[in-house]
Amino acid sequence: MITFKSLVAGYGRSGDILRGVDFTAPQSAVTCIVGPNGAGKSTVLKACSGLLRPRDGQVLIGDDDISHCSPAQILRRGVVQVPQHHGLFPSLSVRENVMLGAYVQRRERERNRRRYAELTDLFPLIAERADDRAASLSGGQRRIVEFARALMLSPRVVLLDEPTLGLDPKACHQLAEAVRTLHGSGVTVLMVEQNVRFGLTLADHAVVMEGGRVLHTGDAGALLADPDMAQLFFGAAPRHSQAS
Ligand SMILES: Nc1ncnc2c1ncn2[C@@H]1O[C@H](COP(=O)(O)OP(=O)(O)OP(=O)(O)O)[C@@H](O)[C@H]1O
Ligand SMILES: [Mg+2]
Questions:
Q1: What is the pTM of this model?
Q2: Residue 226 and residue 206: Cα distance in Å, rounded?
């Protein structure tokens, strides 16, 4: 479980971007943050992975207050972020790219070998394309490899920023499968998604942000079906109610 308590954060000397953020992302569930550009969604993830130190308030993983921890300390607690703009090493093979995710524990060879084997079971693409250079993959396939790389450390919590950005529908589908696989293995997922319909369909819980604050939290399916939210995000009623 990730808990944000009255979280205030900002960049450099500028004003506060997060102005008192409160919500909980339940354990072993998928929580999706939605909201307009500049709402502070990515900033919440950065505060959780330690890339940005909170100015006030708290971030807790379970009962563990990580507000003042470094990114490395947070990583050691099993929290991994897949950032908005990531990227693979194009000239390295798929296997090499995935194995780089275990760099901080590179001496634990047996454990890393076992984990790699588990990931090839979870994502057959990794086994099929293991020796191919990452440059030869499609956008969606690269996301899967980035995902697998983040999972090499067997995280308890995965933070995903805009995982579908630039992906075609087929790749989005592959990515959804990957998130479901993560969910099925008991990992807590906190994601940010511009594609509101995609994000809320995949998620159990939803958080709506605007202007550095939380406007709403609740069941993702209920939010998707809510006509007021449909108006806010899509400018119209959701598709299923238009069809009826
Ligand atoms: N590194 C930075 N330095 C200064 N300001 C930043 C930085 N990163 C983000 N901001 C500002 O913080 C505010 C919130 O940004 P954030 O990236 O969290 O929004 P977001 O909700 O993820 O938006 P988007 O949907 O565009 O990704 C914006 O006004 C942005 O300009
Ligand atoms: Mg963002």
A1: 0.89
A2: 12
